[in-house]
Amino acid sequence: MSLKVYNTMTRSKETFVPLTPGKVNMYVCGPTVYDYIHIGNARPAIFFDIVRRYLEMSGYEVQYVVNFTDVDDKLIRKAEQSGETVPQIAEKFIAAYHEDIEALGIRKADRNPRVTENIDEIVSFIEALVDKGFAYASGGDVYFRTEKFEEYGKLSHQNLSELQFGIRVEVGERKENPQDFVLWKGAKPGEIHWPSPWGEGRPGWHIECSAMARKYLGETLDIHGGGHDLQFPHHECEIAQSECMTGQPLAHYWMHNGYIHINNEKMSKSLGNGITVHQLVQQVKPQTLRFFFLSTHYRNPLNFSEEGLEQAGGGLDRIENGVANLRHRITVAPQGEIDGRVYEAVRRIKGQFREKMDDDFNTPDALTAVFDLISESNTYLKTADANADTLRLLLDTLEEWNNVLGILSEPAEELLDEEVERLIVERTEARKSKNWARADEIRDLLTEKGIQLEDTPQGLRWRRK
Ligand SMILES: [Zn+2]
User: Fold this and answer.
1) Distance from first CA to last CA of the chain, Å, rounded?
2) Do 80 and 169 sit in the same domain of this protein?
3) Contact between residue 164 and residue 158 where contact means Cβ atoms under 8 Å apart
4) Cα 335 from Cα 331, distance rounded (Å)
5) Cβ contacts of 99 within 8 Å, gap of 6 or more
6) What's the half-sphere exposure (Cβ side, CA atoms, 13 Å) at 239?
7) Mind telling me which residue stretches traverse the membrane in this protein (predicted)?
8) Do 217 and 366 reside in the same domain of the chain?
9) Which residues participate in the annotated binding site for ATP?
């Protein structure tokens, strides 16, 4: 089976065929760096990280670009309020973004281009659109002439007459038509600005992605991604600009992740912005967050709740315990022939994992495959003559999947001698007070860590296996 991707443009799952065999160009709209990223930003960041990793696992060479919007109204407002400059604010939150995505186990994109480093490209992009008649200058601003692009609305499946409803015209805008959108904004006094043929100003939001996608990845992308809310107007505007410029489709596959609900309420900007990734990774293990995000299909709404996080934590514990047991047993088990039954189970479950991931990145079902393999592994671990080669096959498979999912912690550290001593004392006391459950728990923990207890005439001794 080959990879199928749901394409928002056609509203259907399509077989994935890259423009250049073996290579994938992927552009995902990144954050506006005026604040810490919130859980609404974490979802696309984690999901498209999975897409990239899975494409790589499938043998593709992936070029992955995520932009930073480092100048816009929000940054300018924040600068006015805080007394810092726009570049200072951008620098601070770009650093925080890198910290946060690293904490979430998200690999850095190949490039994170910034608007302010690409002003020349943006200005010449706009100039070309003006020359071709797709854009016009008006009072220091430049606007895109939407009615010149007949296909405007094709991604979000709306037509121009529908789009006229609900469009708010900002005070001070001098557009020919309400649905025209801004490419260049003339600077107000005191605002950060760059020179252009239309006077001092700065780029509109949509044009940056068209210019940077083209500069770093070419005229047509394999995959263009982002959150559901970016379909309109942002991606629709990107399509209009780029396709009028080049005459080529901007992207072959448009992928959008679904909304986040918080305690079953649709995430509002205020509520969603309240939960930052910065705070969240202090409170919840990052692997648990990834597991939680992956347990809902990316196109479905995701309900963010304490209960959901707890469930994810429980599920992840089962997987991590299974893996820890494997890792330990391998160090003590003898070599041997790979068990035929386990071999067959691994082959079958590996097929399931690929089938599910190939089906538009069905991570919840891929996690079911992980649980199935953990069950097989736990069953095998109960056999007295488990051998290292069979255990290695199981562990390698789980680690290969983990390269895509990123849900496992690094192997646990060995227990220090003083921790072992402390646990032995605690166990003796638990036995004295007939707290058998705790005593057993400690014995299991010590066994798992490879600590062997021996009763000797001189008292209890311990050694490492
Ligand atoms: Zn964009």
Assistant:
1) 45
2) yes
3) no
4) 10
5) 278
6) 23
7) none
8) no
9) 269
Ligand 1 centroid – CA 177 distance (Å): 23
Q: Are 36 and 339 in contact (CB under 8 A)?
A: no
Other beta carbons within 10 angstroms of residue 427's beta carbon come to: 21
* Same domain membership, residue 236 and residue 378: no
Residue entry with tokens 């002003």: 119
Contact yes or no for 155/231 (Cβ under 8 A):
yes
The residues facing 460 across adjacent strands are: 455
Q: How far is the CA of 121 from the centre of ligand 1 (A)?
A: 15
Left (φ > 0), alpha (ψ -120 to 50) or beta: where does 15 sit?
beta
Q: What are phi and psi of 420, to 5 degrees?
A: -60, -45
Own/partner contacts of 158-161, CB < 8 Å, gap of 24 or more, are 158/232
The model's pTM is: 0.86
Write out pLDDT tens, residues 147-158: 999 999 999 988
Say how many CA atoms lie within 13 Å of 25 toward its Cβ: 16
Q: Give, as residue ranges, everything with CB less than 5 Å from ion ligand 1.
A: 29, 209
How many domains, the chain?
3
C-alpha 359 to ligand 1 mean position (Å): 26
Same domain flag for 444 and 371? no
* Cα(238) to centroid(ligand 1), Å: 7
Query: Could you list the residue range(s) of the whole structural domain that residue 448 is in?
Result: 417-464
Interval between CA 235 and ligand 1 midpoint (Å): 6
* pLDDT tens digits, one per residue of 217-263: 999 999 999 999 999 999 999 999 999 999 999 999 999 999 998 87
